[in-house]
Amino acid sequence: MAKSFQFPLQKVLNLREIIEDSRAIVLKRSQAKLLQEKEELESLKEKKNTMLNQEQNNGSTNGSFSLRNIKISMDYISQLNDTIAHQMRRVRQTDEIVAKDRSVLIEASKNKKIVEKLRERRLEDYNKDCRRKETSKENEIAIRIMARNDWAGNK
To answer: Which residues contact 18 (CB under 8 A, 6 or more apart)?
Structure first.
């Protein structure tokens, strides 16, 4: 019975698979964070648009504007603009983190793929060697049978 194929770098391959999986998890988390930040940004923009529409409707409905209400609305809109600008910076920063995490995952995948290709080549070589040895044994058996038949025929 021939011994089974054993890849000498199997532990390295296993480790690289674990690293790739952990990098994929990190990327998923950062992508989820980016989505959350974008949703927050959209929510803030909706608040601003709602406030602007509400102020426009209040002015056209009443026909009169209170300076106090206008001042409060403008302060709130200004505050929303500042918050939106801050949130946009957070989205950009999170997007940069996602890009970095993606490149780290790609590098981990490349490193794993290198060892996988090496494993595949070694397995091919092992299988070729096994087929060669099997063919050699079959040839030897065939030669022995022919020699035995020749010996038996010459008697």
So the answer is: none
Q: pLDDT of 132-144, one tens digit each?
A: 999 999 999 988 8
First-last CA distance in the chain = 36
Which segments of the chain does DSSP mark as H helices, in order?
10-62, 67-154
Domains and CATH numbers, the chain: 11-154 (1.10.287)
**Residue 59: predicted pLDDT:** 61
Cα-based distances in Å from 38 to 44, 45, 82, 93? 10, 11, 16, 11
Q: Are 26 and 108 in contact (CB under 8 A)?
A: no
Using CB atoms within 10 A of its CB, is residue 71 exposed (0-12), middle (13-18) or buried (19+)?
exposed
Phi, psi of 96, deg, nearest 5: -65, -40
CB 91 within 8 A of CB 34: yes
